[in-house]
Amino acid sequence: MTDRSLRAQLLRWVLVPLLVVAVVDTAVAYFSARGVATAEQDRMLLGSARVIAESLSDQEGQTSPDIPPAALELLRTDSRDLVYYSVATSAGVILAGHSDLPLPRHALAPEQSTAFDAIFLDEPVRVVAFSQPQLQASGSGSILVEVAQTLLSRRAMTLHLWAQSISYQWLMIALAGAMISIGMRLELRPLKRLGERVRQRPVTVHEPLGEEAVPEELQPVIDSFNDYVRRLHDLMAAQGRFIANASHQLRTPLTVLNTQLDYALRGDDAHGRTEALQAMRSTLQHGIRVVSQMLSFCRAEGGVDGSLHGGAADLTDIARQVVEEAALAAVRRNVDLGCELDGPAFVPGSSQLLHELVANLVDNALRYGREGGVVTVGVHGDSGRGRVRLTVEDDGPGICREQRELVFERFYRRPGEMAEGSGLGLSIVREIALASSATVALSDPPSGRGIVVGVDFPAAEAPRAESAREASAAVLR
Predict the structure, then answer these.
(1) Band of pLDDT at residue 94, cut at 50, 70 and 90
(2) Which pTM was predicted?
(3) N or C: which end of the chain has fewer CB atoms below 10 A?
(4) Contact yes or no for 451/394 (Cβ under 8 A)
C-alpha cells in the first residue's frame, strides 16, 4: 500500500539524499583515516631509519653500523607489529639486517627517502628507505637504510580514526532527522487544523474559509477550496431553483389530470367521458414532454454524455433527420417546413444532444410560429472562418428585443403566451451549445417578420470512417 503521509514523504526526500551523502562520506572518511594512519607510520619509520643512519661510524675507511635500541623502540606498538631493517652500501653490500628486504623501485639521491608497500616473509609490510651519504673521506656514494613494519598498528589506527569520524557524522544525521521530523510535525499543524475546520463545517454552510494563520504554501489550497465552495453553492442554488420550478411544472398537469379523471368517473354521458379521456391524454402528453425536457436539460447541464467532448457529428445529417421527424407535426399545423442544407458539416459534440438541440428549435418554431406559416432550417459552413452556422427561421409573431435574453432562462414564459410548452426548450439549446463551444443568438429575419435562432459552431474534422466513406463515394461518381 502506498504511503500517503506527507510527513513521511518529506522525510524521505530530505533524509534519503542525506543518507546517500553520508554513505559516500563514510567511504571517503575511511580512505582519509587510512591516509592519516599511513602518514603516521611513514613518519615513525623514517625517524627510525634516520636514527640508524646517524649511528653509522667510519672505522679504518669502512662504514660500521652500530644500531642503537632506541631506533627500533620507536616502532614498538600494542599491536605487536614485527619490525625489519637493512643497511646496505650503494654497491649492494649488506652491512646489517635482512638482506632480502624489498628495495625501492628507483635509486635514491643522498638525503632522499621513499615509502612503499611490499610483501616480506608472506606478510604485507610498510617499508621506508633512506639514503645516507657515505662517511668515507675518499669515497663516494651512499648508504641505503631500510626499515619495514607489519600493518597491524596501521589498521588499528585506521579503524579508530574512521570509527571516531563516522560516529560523530551519524550522530549528527540522527539529530538532524529528529529535528526535521519535529519541525515538520509542528509546521504541519496548520494543515491539520484546516482539515478539522473543514470537517466540522455544517453541510449548509457555504462561506469561504478564512485565511488567518495559514502558511503561504497553503494559500493556493485555501483559494481553490473557496472557489470550489462558491461553485458548489451556485450549483446547489441552481438545483434548488430547478427542483422548485420542476415541482411546480409537474404539479399543474397532475392536478389537471386528477380533475379530468374525477370528471370522467362521475360523468354518465359517453360523449363527455370520451372528451375527458382525450383531455387526459393531452394533459399526460404535456406532462411527459415536461419530464422529457427536464431530463434532457439535466443531461446537457451536467455533461453526462461521454461523447460530448472529443467527438464530432454531421450537423447537416442531424438537421435532415429532425426535419423528417417533424414533418407530421408541421402538416397538422399547416406549416411549410423546409431546409436549406450545404454539404456535410461536422461540429464538436454528441449526435444525440445535437439532435435534441435542433429538435427543440424546430419544435419551438412550429409551436410558437403562426399556423399556416413557414419554418426553414438551414446549415451553412464558412470554411474561411472555420465555423458552421445552424439557423431556424419562422415567420410568426417573433420575440421583442427586451425578452430575447429572458427566453433562455429555465421555465420562462412570455406574458400572454397561450401555446403549451415547458419553458425549457431554449434553455436546453443554450446548455448544449455551450457544451459544444457554440453561441446562440436571436435576430430578425430579412423579411422583418418572425424570428431567426442562430447557433454558431466551431468546425470539426470529419471522423475517419466518414472521410473514407466520402472518398469512396467520390471514386464511384
Answers:
(1) confident
(2) 0.47
(3) N
(4) yes
